[in-house]
Amino acid sequence: MQAERLSPIGPPEPAAAVPVMDVIAGLSRALDITEGHPTGHAARSCVIGMRLAQACGLDETALADLFHALLLKDVGCSSNAARVHQLAGGRDHEVKRSVWMTDWRSWPEKIAHSLAWVGRGEPLGRRLGRLAHLAWLGPRAEQEIFQIRCDRGAAIALDLGLSRTTAEAIRAMDEHWDGGGQPARLRGNAIPLAAQIIGIAQVIEIFWQQHGVEAARAVVRRRRRRWFSPELSRLALALLDDAALWRALGDVASIELLHDVAPAPAMLRVTEAHLDRIVDAFAGVIDAKSPYTHDHSRRVADYAVAAAARLGFSGARLVRLRRAALLHDIGKLGVSNSILDKPGALSAEEWQAMRGHTRHTLEILDAVPIFRELAVDAAAHHERLNGTGYHLGLRGAALTPSARVLAVADVTDALRSDRPYRAGLEVERVVAMLGDDAASGKMCPQSVAAMTEVLRA
Ligand SMILES: [Fe+2]
Ligand SMILES: [Fe+2]
Predict the structure, then answer these.
(1) Which pTM was predicted?
(2) Which pLDDT tens digit goes with each residue over 384-403?
(3) Closest CA to 72 of 192, 160, 2
(4) How far apart are CA 111 and CA 375, in angstroms?
(5) Domains and CATH numbers, the chain
(6) How much distance in Å is there from the Cα of 410 to the middle of ligand 2?
(7) Rounded distance from Cα 380 to ligand 2 centre (Å)
(8) In Å, how far are 5, 157, 327, 457 from 280, measured between CA atoms?
(9) pLDDT at position 185, please?
(10) pLDDT bracket for residue 107 (50, 70, 90)
């Protein structure tokens, strides 16, 4: 087997040299694409929210809790994507983004939004059926969608080792000052202040990013006393007068601005154990996107590590492979559930979008310095040794031993798992199919031999 090739992008920074916040901020870009927001939305919302929190006079502990809640506010959003698609049809990213551009509590806006987006692109009869179903569900549909996202987001925050305050801020971030929000219809100061800050920061970011400062100012005024408290609205309007901030948010990579507002605990160096915890949590976010990928990333990691250990991988190399395996499909967060969950064959256009998930994986991981080295291997899991894979069409020596064993692990889990159109395949059938792929030059024979041992063990 050839020696491990150095990544063309450059070596990773050692874990000890990277602040926790750089890892979380980097991965928050994956949450942006899941929710249909332009890249950097979470980071910019974080800067806006932290500036508001400073104006509110929050103490150091509260600032640290809020900082992580702002960056990870959408960490539960992959969990409701399948349900959004099931109810509304169309592309879940576009539907979700469009909801954020409306006042979803205003009936005229709600009806106009439903007519524009529900069942978009589908035959008239199907669209009418969806509208009737949503009308029958009434507020239950809205409540269910928010509940999934908020509960899951809070649970993941706790999995990440963040505080209960952070988790509760994420759970309550869509509650509104007058009691008309979701999911618990909390009112006034029963809503944690951190949640109120997230709520106003994200709306300001969305309107500012889409239409500029005046639009952000207008939305704060329109929703003052309904969505937002009078005091937070006042502070937000004052912040919108800070021209230097909005110029900086438009010009500078958000990560630099984040360093300016990050509280001390977020600047602590990430440990290897913490990094594993973050990666494990994000594997859960990835796998929650579609019911058909439940636990896929975790199983691929187990298969990859078991096979690689038989090939002599150990220590840091094995750790890196495990992380690459856990994150290999992070780009699927950018693919619509209309494609991921489609029971039938994909059209050419849909197939092209599906194949784009490895490009998203490369872009997301390459933007997080500590994951730069594993980005190429993680994104190469659909490449094939004979150049017939995607998305780059890499071949032979361009594929490292890690990439090769990861590709075999990914296929192994796909074949072993149930699909809407077939049950998971028996071990010997999978072994035979992997053997065929090795014989035809697609898969690495050594990796296939190791996986065969794992499967038969
Ligand atoms: Fe994949
Ligand atoms: Fe996969």
Answers:
(1) 0.87
(2) 999 999 999 999 999 999 99
(3) 160
(4) 43
(5) 19-78+145-267 (1.10.3210.10), 272-456 (1.10.3210.10)
(6) 5
(7) 11
(8) 26, 12, 9, 25
(9) 94
(10) confident
- Tell me which residue of 6, 4, 3, 7 sits closest to 375, measured CA to CA: 7
Question: Which residues, at least 6 apart from 240, have a Cβ–Cβ distance to it below 8 Å?
Answer: 204, 208, 213, 216, 217, 220, 246
CA 43 to ligand 2 center in whole angstroms:
27
Place of tokens 């592309």: 91
**C-alpha torsion 309→313→317→321, nearest 10:** -40
Residue whose C-alpha is closest to residue 433's, from 417, 401, 411? 411
Q: How far apart, in Å, are the Cα atoms of 32 and each of 22, 43, 72, 148, 437? A: 16, 9, 10, 18, 36
What distance in angstroms lies between residue 156's CA and the mean position of ligand 1's atoms? 23
Q: Which ligand is nearest to the CA of 414?
A: 2
Ligand found nearest the CA of 406:
2
C-alpha dist (Å) from residue 371 to 27, 28, 77, 98, 121 = 10, 14, 23, 32, 38
Catalytic residues: 332
Backbone angles phi, psi at 388, to 5 degrees: -90, 5
- What's the CA gap between 80 and 289, in Å, rounded? 8
β-sheet bridge partners, residue 224: 228
